[in-house]
Amino acid sequence: EVQLVESGGGLVQPGGSLRISCAASGFSFSTYSMNWVRQAPGKGLEWISWIDSSSSTIYYADSVRGQFTISRDNAKNSLYLEMNRLRAEDTAVYYCARDRGYDFRSGPNDYWGQGTLVIVSS
Amino acid sequence: SYVLTQPPSVSVAPGKTARIPCGGNNIGSKSVHWYQQKPGQAPVLVIDHDSDRPSGIPERFSGSNSGNTATLTISRVEAGDEADYYCQVWDSTSDWVFGGGTKLTVL
Fold first, then answer.
1. Which of these, A121, A95, A114, A111, lies nearest to A20 by C-alpha position?
2. pLDDT in tens, A54-78
3. How many CB atoms lie within 10 A of CB A65?
4. Separation of alpha carbons A90 and A83, rounded Å
5. Beta strand pairing status for B9-12 and B102-106?
6. Does the distance separating the beta carbons of B41 and A45 come in below 8 Å?
7. Residue numbers in B near A115 (CB within 8 A)
8. Which one of B86, B90, B101 has the shortest CB-CB distance to A105?
9. Cβ pair B48:A113 closer than 8 A
10. How far is B104 from chain A (nearest CA, A)?
11. Fewer CB atoms near the end CB (10 Å): N or C, chain A?
12. For B65-90, what is the mean pLDDT?
C-alpha cells in the first residue's frame, strides 16, 4: 500500500525557518518524481515544487522560488521541503504527492499524504 | 499566467447527474486532471488525462475536455460524493495550475 506521511509542521515566527518531511513507503520511491502542494486555510490547492527521481531537475512556483528548497534522500525514502524567511501567507497545510507522470508536464499526482500544518505567526 | 475557472458551488439531488466545469483558454489542448477533497482529508485523484479513471474510482465518474471547457461528470450522485473538486493542468506560462475548486452539495 502506498503511504506518504508528512511531518515537521508547527508554529513558527515570521522570518523563521522550518523543514518538513515526507516519508514514503509501499512503492519504489527512487523511481518517482514528487511534488509539494499547499493549501491555505479555507483556500484552494497551490502547487509549489517538483523534483525528479534523481534530484537532477527541480522546479518551483514563482511564489516560493528563492525561499523554499525541495530535496530528497532516496536511501531514506524521504522528501523534504526547507522553508526560509517564512511569512504569514505561507500558513497552510503542506502535502507531498507522488507524480505518476514521465516528466514535469505530465502528472497526475496519484497519491497524496495527509498533510502537515505550518502556521506562521508571532 | 494561465487561469482555470470553476464555479464555487454546484448542487445536485441524489441519483441525478452533476457536471462540474473547469474553464481555461484553449484548455482542450491540455491534459486535465481532477481531484476530490473531502473535509479534513487529502485530495484524491478521480480523473486523469481528461477522461482516464484511476483504479478504484467508480465508473460514475467521467471526464471530458474540449474547446475552453473541461467537465467532470458524476452520474447517479450519492451523498458520499459531497466534496470539493479541483481541476489541474500544466501550462508553459504557469507550470502546474489548479482551479479554485467547486464545492459539490448533494441535496
1. A95
2. 999 999 999 999 999 999 999 999 9
3. 11
4. 9
5. parallel
6. no
7. 42
8. B90
9. no
10. 14
11. N
12. 98
Residues of B in contact with A97 (CB under 8 A): 43
State yes or no: pLDDT of A96 exceeds 90.
Answer: yes
Residues A22, A79 contacting (CB under 8 angstroms): yes
Please work out, in degrees rounded to the nearest 5, the angle formed at the alpha carbon of residue A22 by the alpha carbons of A20 and A27: 170
Q: What percent of chain B has pLDDT over 70?
A: 100
Q: Compute the average pLDDT of residues A21-39.
A: 97
Over residues B37-56, mean pLDDT: 97
CA B68 remoteness from chain centre: 14
> Would you call B100 and A113 a contact, using CB atoms and an 8 Å cutoff?
no
Average pLDDT along chain A: 97
Top residue of A45, A57, A100, A112 to mutate, by most chain B CBs within 10 Å, is: A45
Sign of CA dihedral B57, B39, A85, A29: negative
Inform me whether the pLDDT recorded for A102 exceeds 90: no
Distance in angstroms (rounded) separating the CA atoms of residues A48 and B58: 30
Closest by CA to B86, choosing from B56, B42, B55, B53, is B42
Q: DSSP 3-state assignment of A30?
A: helix
d(CA A120, CA B94): 26
- CB A42, CB B103: distance < 8 Å: no
